[in-house]
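Reopening this one. Same input as before:
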Amino acid sequence: MNVLAVGAHPDDVEILCAGTLIRYRRAGHSVGICVLTNGDLGAPDGDKATIAAVREREARRSAEVIGARLFLLGEPDGFLFDSPGTRIAFAEVLREFRPDVLFAPDPNDYHPDHRAASAIALNSLVLAASPLQRTGSPAIDALPAVYHMDTLALVGAAPQRWVDISDALGTKLDMLAAHRSQNDWLRCTDGVDYLDYATKQARLRGLQCGTAAAEAFRAPEFFPIHRAGSTLPGLDDQGDD
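Same output, byte for byte:
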């Protein structure tokens, strides 16, 4: 399968679903990561172009850890909107990568860019499947299975599916460690080490499903309906209701 995860900023995907992506890669599937903004607000000071360049290098190093294909749309950090331009740009990513599974941010996550990324991901599906909407690649012939990633700090609706990432947690942290500038910034501004943060969140989700560590997801409710859980690694026993 082709598995694509989309996030608003460099490191969003790694925090919330890197362990699941690692499981897909270990099973032989192709993985893509799409980052919608350039992350140029991700520092307490400095030149925005320099910050964006640093974050791009970090995103590339992270993707290289598991051999994921990286797509960078380069929208300005803090000003991500579900606009015609962003829909068309992401529709082209969908057409080029042709995912069987798509992970998107939760529509109610705390950051406005995260909420916009969620809308862009879902609202671009129809464009990607519409032959009359021209982009550089042909229209997709089937919609991917879609899952919303968890929210930060587990705030919001309860998840429906859990993926055991106990054996993938170390590699997930390696991916997060590639985003060094962000961890340095969070330590200074919030007193948070997000390697520790991500570990705690994974441990809590693991506690809920009886594993050492897990990531959690929800399936959006829209037509056409897909079998929720049938495309997630190790979740065929969790049912489809």
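So the earlier flakiness isn't reproducible anymore. For the record, The beta strands are 2-7, 30-37, 69-75, 101-104, 145-149, 161-164, 214-218.
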